Amino acid sequence: MCGRFVQATPVAELARLFGFGDLPNLEPRWNVAPTQDIAAVTRDAGGQRHLQRLRWGLVPAWAREPGIGSRMINARADGVAEKPAFRSAFRARRCLIPADGFYEWQAAGGRAGRKQPFYILPADRAAMPVLAFAGLWESWTGPASAPAGAAPDRPLRTATIITTDANGTMRRLHDRMPVVLDPADWAAWLDPATAPRDLLALLCPAPEHVLTLRPVSPRVNSVRTQGADLIQPAPPPVDEAPRLL
Asked: What is the mean pLDDT of residues 62-90?
């Protein structure tokens, strides 16, 4: 799964990597959580790429109210083409979600219920400066979507991150992981003409050498905590060190 991640790369660098022209003002964020706004790369009908702000937690166009989005932060790859919540977006509204890395938790020894957070990042920043999660986005219109003082029919744009089976690296922590697309596949994922069977073929675990992981401070557990120190190595206490099989 993917329930927390980092978006801290400067927007100018993202524009260079992903090929969009607009440069919105984005603050670095070291602990992005569900229902918060995230940055995502989309493609318009003319083939131009854009960086959009989308709320994390997909709200289908047919939803009665937007609260459903909090339960749809992830979409399983094995049902994304058929499930009513995702199939329309899978056909027509796909996006790339840039991430410097993401967090996962593993049960630790010692005190019951204690979990050790890990930060998962590209193993080779020169080859892959940022990760690109496969995502879907939707536009929902309704009175509850309008911010205070805005028109009641203003659309609420939301997104979900597609997950797949964990690769060998991630399986040490969890049986699911976000789909990390190879840069060579970014164009095909965004292209509305890509055949569904070819899209589904992209939704597979990343090769094991692509990612590396390291334990970090439990300060990341709080969604209110921010700062670059969250991703710095912080080995767990010796008597509670988790076993990586």
From this structure: 96
Residue 224 belongs to a domain? yes
Cβ within 8 Å of residue 180, ≥6 positions away? 131, 132, 133, 134, 206, 210, 211
Asked if 104 is an active-site residue, the reply is yes
What are the DSSP E strand ranges found in 110-210? 115-122, 131-140, 156-165, 176-178
pLDDT, the chain, mean: 91
Instruction: For 191-228, write each residue's pLDDT tens digit.
Output: 999 999 999 999 999 999 999 999 999 999 999 999 99
Among residues 65, 104, 138, 240, the one annotated as catalytic is: 104
Query: DSSP character for 19?
Result: -
The domain that holds 204 is classified in CATH as 3.90.1680.10
208 a catalytic residue: no
- Tally of domains in the chain: 1
Residue 134 lies in a domain: yes
